[in-house]
Structures are given as C-alpha cells and as structure tokens.
Amino acid sequence: MKMISRKEACSISKVTLFKVLIGLLLLQPGSQRLRAQQYSVSDLAERIEEFKKDIRGPYKDIRWFCTDGSIRAPKDPCPEDIGPGVQHARYKDVVADIAKKNGIYLGQILAYHTSEEFWNPGKNFSRLKQYQIDQYLRTVDNGWINRKGQFYRGSVQAEDEAAWGQTFYKNILSEEENLRKHFFLIRNSMKDIPYAEDENLGQEMRSRSKVISDLLPSFMDLRVKIHSAPKPADIPDVERFLAQNRKTLNPDLTKQFDDLIKVMKEFHRPFDIKSLSGYLKKLKNEKFRTALSGFMEAHAGIEDKAALIQGSSEFMWEIRQGLLTEVTPSDRLVMLEISLKLEEVIFRYESDWKPENLRDQLKKICNLGLASAASGYLEVWEWEQLVSALTAYEKPSLTLEELTFVLERSRSAVEWSTSMFKAHFEEVSELYAGFEPLAHGFVDDRIRGSLVLQLGRAVGELGDYIARESNLVNKVMDLKNQSSVRGLNPGYAMGELVVVEGLKEELEVSSDKIYVFQRPPSDLKPVAGIATVAEGNLVSHVQLLARNLGIPNAALSDSNLEGLKKYAGTTIFYAVSNKGNVILKPADQMTSEEKALFEVKSRKQEKIAVPVKDIRLDVREVLNMRSVDASNSGKLCGPKAANLGQLKKMFPDEVVEGLVIPFGVFKMHMDRPMPETGGSYWDYLNAVFREADKMREEGTVEGKVEEFQLEKLKTLRGAIQSMTLDPDFVRDLETGFTSVLGADLGKIPVFLRSDTNMEDLKDFTGAGLNLTIFNTVDREKILKGIKDVWASPYTERSFKWRQKYLLNPENVFPSILVIPSVDVEYSGVMITKGINVGTEKDLTVAFSRGAGGAVDGQAAETRLITVQSDLLLAPAREIYYNRLPETGGTERRIASFEEPILNNRNKADIRSLATSLREILPRETDSDYKGAYDVELGFRDDKLWLFQIRPFVENKRALGSAYLESITPKIRKDKVIQLSTKL
C-alpha cells in the first residue's frame, strides 16, 4: 500500500472535495438549468410544483441578518453592539437564479430587501406587483409555493414584515410625487403588504369561498353571492350548507368551512363608528383630526345605510384631496388606512341601500362613483369629467336623451375604473399565468374586491330601466346585465363563436368565425365579426377596418365574456344595429329574413377593383416629397406620400420634409431575374395567381388554394428581402438624403412607411395592413428596411385582407414614404366627424403618449371635440409608450395617468386644423369628396406635426342595410321622465 504525505493528502482532499461538490450540484433536481439563459415556462412550472411539495417551499435555510451586513446561524443571534438584526429565511439558489434571469421574484420576504429595490419605478413596480399576486395565489391555492413551507417555522417573522411595511410606506409617502402619480398602486398595495395588525377581511372571505368552491362545485352558487353582494344572510346559508353536507366532507374541508364562517361573522359584524376613534390618537395633523371627529359625530348611531355610504364616500374623497397638502408621511399612512376602512364599510352595506325611485338610483351611482375615484380607481381629473352628469339627480326630471347620457357617463366610470386595474396588473398576471394558470384570476379578484363591482351592478340596473323605456334592448344569448353590451359599428355575420381570454398577439384567426376578445391583437387578420372587452380606441386600425368593411363590432364587459364562454364553438348569428343594440343568438334560431341575408351574400360577393390603368411605372428615381401632391395618388405613389406632399404645400411648417420611392422603383426591381426560377420576381408573382385561378377552375377548395398561394408568397417575400438593390437607386437615395433631409444616409433617423396603391380606395381603407419601419438610422438597416417594406404586401395578414375584399389583389404596388423621425411627446388620430357619438361637424380624436399613438389599438385618450367643448370618451390606460431617440430604435418608458394627454392649446390647434382641412383640401385638390378625413398627427413642445391624411371610409352597405334599420328601435329622445318615478 502506497503511503502519501500529509501535504499530498490535503491536496487530494481539496480536489476530491471539489469533485464531490460538483457531483452533488449536478445531482440536484434541475440544477443544470442554473445557466445563462432564462428559465422556460415549462421549467418554471416544474419548479413551482417542486416548491409546493417541499417542506421549506422556496427557502433553503434560516439566518440572522445583522445591521452590519453580517449573516449568522439561527442559534448565533446578532450581538448587541451591532444592533438586533432580523431573522428570516434565505431563498433557495434556484429562486435567486430565477429572479436574476427572469425577473420573477418568488416567495418574497419583505425584510430581505430595501424599500428602494422593492418599489423600483424603473421596472414598473414589478416586485411590488409580484408580491401582491403571490399573496393572492397563497390564499386561493392553500399556500401555493408555500403549501408545506408555510409551516417552516421562523422563515418569515410577522412583526418584522409589519415593521418593514411601516418603514416602506413612510418612505414612499414622503414624496408628494408618488401620491400624485401612483395613488392607485400605493393604496391598493396596502391590501397586501402588512403594516398594521388589521386584516383585509373582505379579501380573505372571497379567497376562502373560492378555495371551497374549487374543491366542492356545489358550493358555487353561494360563492357567487359572497363575491358579488355579500350580506349577513349569507352566514346562515353557509352554515346550513355545511350542516347538510358535513357527513360527506373530509376534515380539511370542514375546517375550511369553519374558517370561512368565522371570517364572515367578523366581516359582517355591525360597523361601529366609534371604532375609528383610535385613529385620532395616531393623527398629528389638526385638520385631519377635526375632519375625522366631524365625520364620526355626524354619523354616530346612524341607521340609514344610504346616508352612511354617502358620508363615507365624501370623507374618502376629502382624504384623497387632503393627502397632497403638507402632511407628514405618518399621517398620510393613517388617513389611507381610514380610507380603506371606509371602502370596506361601503362594500359591506351597499346591498342594504335599495333605491325606491330613479333619483335614488342616480344618487347611489354617483356616491359609488365618488368612492371609486377616492379609492384611486379613477384619477381626480377623470372624475371631474364625469361629476356634472352624475349629479343630474338634483333635477326634477330628465328627457330620455339626457338620462341616456347619464347612463353613458356612469358606464364610463365603471369601464375607466376596471381599465385602471387591468393597466396596472395585466402584465404581471400574464407573466405568472404562463407557469401558474391560477394567476388568470388575479385581476378579476382585484376588481371584485373593490367598489367597482357594486358600481357596475348599480349602473347595470339603470341600464335595464333605460333599455325598457327606449326599447333599445340587446338580445345576447342568455347573458345577465346585457345593458353593458353596446355596438361600436353596424353589420351582421354568421359563424362559429370563438372566445379569447387574455391578449394573444400570435392568434390564428379565420375569416368565417366571430371572435370575442379580451383585447384584440393589433394585427388582426380578417374575421366575420368581433366583440371586445378592451376596445382600445375607436380609431385604431382594427376598429377602422371593421367599420370600413361592415364587420359587426361591439364592446362588452368581463362578465359578459365569461358568460359567452359556454357558447364557444357554436354557430351563431350576430348583428349590431345603427343605434348600437346587439343581437347574438344560435344560428338555428335565425328568422327567414336573417337567413336570406347570407343567401344573397353568397350569390353576390361585393369586391373592389384596385385601379391600375393610370399607374406610372416609368418613374424610377427617388422623388422629393414636395414634388408630389394628391393628384399623384395611385399613379406615381400611394396616398400617404401623395397626401402628405399635398399637406406640405398647405401646411409647410407642420409637415416634415420627405422622400418618395415611387412604384416604378419597386417594379424595376421586380422585373429583375429571380434566383432559381428562370424568370423575374414579377413573373413568379403572376404565375402564382394564374395557378390559383386554374386550381379554382378545377374545383380545388378555396382553403387549399389559399394555402398554396401563401406558401408561394412566402418564397417570394424571402426572395425580395434578400435581393440586391440597384446601385443607381442607392446613389439616388443617398443624394436625396443629403439634399432634402439635410443629412447623409445613415446619419439621420427616419421612418419608412409602406404606401401602396390598394390603400384609401373609395370602399377599402387598407389601414395598417403593411409594414412601417420605425425610427431607424443605420444605413444597412434602412436599405434592408426598403426591401422589407416591398415584401410586406405578401405577408399572410395583408394578403388575406386583400384577397377577401379586392378583385385583383395581385396588382398591388408598394411605394415608400421616407420621412425624418419626430420624437413627439404624444400622438394619435383625428377623424373629422363624430363616431358613434356626436355629429358630422364634430371631431373624434384618440391620443397616446409617445410615437405611433392610437393606431395599434392602444387604450388611448379618446375625445369628442366640438366647436365649443370636448367630451372625454375614455382616458389613456397604456402603461408603456415609445420615444424616438436620435440613435434610432425606440425607447420604452412608463406612463402614469394623473394628468390628461391633450391640453387646451392642443385641442384649439386640432379644431383649427380640422377647419382648414375641410375648407382648403377639397379646393386645393379639385375634389368633390364630401366625407370625413382620417388624420395622423402628434405634438412636441405643444407644436402640432402632421404625418398622414386619408379619407375616412365607412361601409355604406352596413349603414344602409334594410335589415339593420329594421332592428334599430325608434327612440323618443324628448320623452320626459320624472326622477321620482318608482323603479
């Protein structure tokens, strides 16, 4: 046996130990995933299941964390000379790795982190929101990833977490800007982050009832009652249900019931106004102390729940406004806590306020709306846009038209409040839903735990009353609260119903189906009909295409979407009238008149021919945009360039310089030999369409024909994208950049906008179907972008829209408009008429922050602007927006909603522009066009910039349909209704 030295033994032991450690690491489940790339969704889902089964959940051990930064073992507490420190668990290595690589923070321990890294506005407060969704998942899934780890003693110290919460909120509330910009988020987070001993009983009650109903479906009816309109009478109902089913329940489920009943009794314990007196000792601000004392005195011993709700909502509003005065962070925290208490009071007693007449119903809606605004579900300025309509109950009577306007503004309060939750929480909900499907319920739970639920129900009751008075009744399957469904543009369709939850940008759709979207994709392909929960805005490309093509389109609520899910896969008939009432029913219930609509349609497909007889393909040089005008549209170039050139003549200071790459340059390149084909690119394109016609003549089904065309066009698209640009053309382009745009190619950021001859036809808009290259500087990227734009008409989406509505889709010629980027602060669309509301003389505008606003379906600030006033139809609800740096590309920024986008000066400029366009454009273009215009524009430093103008095309067939007219009720708008009318 060989003897080894002590030195050798030590050396070997180190090597051996290293190998052993590596081996152990590799034996850890999934440890090989501790790598550079992000964890996949399946990886994360696997980890979640592992944590649920682990007695330590996401944690690996417990340590003391001392104030000097040292970490000590559990039995070795921090010495007194360096402070007490805190004790809690450490995250597993894989949990820390997931946080580092994916930005997903599981099982967060508050005391582990500083206030600054937890708040983190630069990451859209992701850690804070993830903490909230984590807490939600724990309540609905028996601890979730802490299913067993919740019994890991010492992993989290409740007193340390609450102390951290106190410090966190005092830090955040010390900045007035945080309250102005992030009031909703701060106040809402207080329902999850511990900072005091009190619990959110309403949320706990809903969570416990959901857990039981998931395990015991027969409990669902009671769960719905508890979620939507909790009442003290629910307690004996639950006790009775438990007694009837106790023998069949396991001990764990029995305990779940016992715990639920306990929470319900605590929740429904009669509110004692004196319970607020404890806050008087905590408040230092004399003004707040006096206000709280006054509120308590005014409502002491009050039995009238309507008066209590009214007083509570008013005091909540007073709190929200008072927080922005010079108040200490401690007092701000106390007043927010009082606000949360009062919201719970309103939530608890709202069902006891039973309006006897119309006036009382309007008053209830107004007070619930005020409380919602006081809770941050509406911004202060947004509530100020609604309050004049919602206080109409002070009048003795209203006409039916006036009462309908009150309903619309009340409905706006519900929709704007709901969209506030979605704007803040949808991103994190979708992130977690990828690996934990239960996360889909988070946003809905947030809304149901707020006053928005009660407000929506009260507005729905008003809507039902007005529907009866006006005969404007929807007939949408067997849905409840049908008054929340409203038509956006008229049309009719028949097809399979598809219900799509969440946002799915890559969704494959079919032109013969009807889709109900949570939120429609920005590049929607042809469909038979659509309905959306988040309609985005009235002037997005999707909405304009639907309006242009007579595709029925309606807005509905989340609960309506939920109710339609059971009909998914059913063939239905769907119609939206000219006044916005909606019919949606099974196809086998169609009348003979409704069936005849589709018999006629199948015999006569109304398609449009793209005019090509006047097209100029001989012009093969880059043009100065100043040299083209409206007369060149569809001849030298598309309407974007032609119309912008026209606007440059009319409004030289509001339009940038530009270059135009005409149709002839594209055709010149298409006439060159296409590799591996024996012909030109143009020959290949026309051969595809000839072969398609031959297939149809031979009886090939249209689906197979389309599949053939798309595959061939994919090949063509790739060939165009890889073609070599003509050197003379490139030199011509370089000269144009220098002489017209004032900088060398590759030195100035530009937009490349596809501009085809198929756009802005008399009966077809083509809005948003082809490619725009955003803010690009690099020379090679610009040259590549030109080829990408030329190839874009042959993408699946663009081709399908053309194929469906055009007679000669092969004769599409793209020109390109090249304009320098303008880093606008906000941008959007103006339609020179009222859409859905307003008149032909009004303006519908939609603006979003940053560049590219409103056109892609963003939840934009939408207004009806009249000569003397403007009406806010919807506030902006997009968290992210793009700015255009000089270095190219886009810079994503995070928005807040505390101020409107458009100011009074902007609105005056928009009115002035619209007047000029209506007066000057027909004269300058020698046009007899009498319709409205669709204008894209933006503002920077309050200066207006014009980017595009086109005719606003509506579907005359849908607007004039005899059938749609027949289902449009005749409404007596001047009918007077006394507000004392009994309900």
TrEMBL record:
Gene3D superfamilies: ATP-grasp fold, A domain (3.30.1490.20), ATP-grasp fold, B domain (3.30.470.20). Residues 637-957 form the Pyruvate phosphate dikinase AMP/ATP-binding domain. It comes from the Bacteria. Keywords: ATP-binding, Kinase, Magnesium, Metal-binding, Nucleotide-binding, Transferase. It is an enzyme of class 2 (transferase). Pathway: Carbohydrate biosynthesis; gluconeogenesis. Its EC number is 2.7.9.2. It catalyses: pyruvate + ATP + H2O = phosphoenolpyruvate + AMP + phosphate + 2 H(+). Transmembrane segments: none annotated. Its cofactor is Mg(2+). Catalyzes the phosphorylation of pyruvate to phosphoenolpyruvate. Belongs to the PEP-utilizing enzyme family. PANTHER family: PHOSPHOENOLPYRUVATE SYNTHASE. This is Phosphoenolpyruvate synthase. It comes from Muriicola marianensis.
